[in-house]
Design a protein that fits this description.
single chain, mainly alpha, 10 helices, 0% strand, globular, ABC transporter permease, transmembrane, ABC-type transporter activity
Length: 244
């Protein structure tokens, strides 16, 4: 119970530390969800039912992924640069508590944007969703994996390089990942790359959870997603211990 209490206290400290920025983060999430739905809608015009489902389920997925892969490493890199992360490491708590506490915060921050993305997508494209009973744990897994990868990236790379990489990832997720469109629209080599990256499995899991009657999750995608989640968590923990 001591470890759980320490983790919750660290998460509370992180929330209070970012208290002045939390409203802005919520606004940014809301804007991202709405802009993704409306923007893609302008590009495709009046989509067919399948395309509409891809767009409606892609917006909340993009919100989850961007929070984890972009916002998490940016804030962690800032903490490393300003020295607050070094101060935290002086506290007599396990290194894993830092990681779990931060991942809890980023997962909580990612969920409101996803809900808004779902609502706006349903309204804009007039689609009928069929929610799977495992949607909530699937969403938590996607959010946790994205945040874990972002945390590991910011822990292992120099802060400047990590922040630069996050900017590139925004374009990769929005334009060159099969989140809001089928993978078969991409070149073959890019399909092969995404077969080993976590972005497509994340999108498949959320898509199938929101529209279970139209989409399914391949077993291989779930294995890839779990492998990335486990590897990124282990990498972040090892980096925290090594740099203690």
């Amino acid at each position: 119970m001591t470890g759980v209490r320490q983790t919750l206290l660290l998460a509370q400290w992180q929330l209070r530390r970012q208290a002045q920025f939390l409203p802005l983060m919520v606004v940014v999430q809301a804007f991202m969800a709405v802009a993704t739905v409306i923007g893609y809608g302008l590009l495709v015009g009046d989509p067919d039912p399948v395309t509409a489902l891809y767009l409606a389920t892609g917006a909340p997925t993009i919100t989850l992924i961007v929070i984890g892969l972009v916002l998490t490493p940016q804030l962690l890199s800032q903490a490393r640069t300003e020295g607050s992360l070094d101060w935290l490491r002086t506290l007599p708590v396990p290194r894993t508590a830092f990681l779990v506490g931060d991942l809890l915060v980023w997962t909580m921050l990612a969920l409101p944007g996803m809900v808004l993305g779902v609502l706006v997508g349903v309204w804009r494209f007039d689609v009928d969703l069929s929610l799977a009973p495992w949607l909530v744990p699937a969403t938590l897994l996607v959010s946790l994996t994205a945040a874990s990868v972002g945390y590991a990236m910011a822990s292992l790379l120099p802060p400047a390089l990590a922040q630069l990489l996050t900017q590139a990832l925004v374009f990769v997720v929005l334009l060159f990942s099969p989140v809001s469109y089928p993978a078969d629209r991409m070149p073959g080599w890019l399909q092969d790359v995404h077969a080993w990256l976590p972005i497509e499995p994340m999108a498949q899991l959320v898509r199938a959870g929101l529209a279970s009657e139209a989409f399914t999750v391949p077993g291989r995608s779930l294995v890839v997603l779990l492998a990335w989640c486990a590897a990124s968590v282990v990498g972040a923990v090892l980096a925290l211990r090594r740099r203690a």
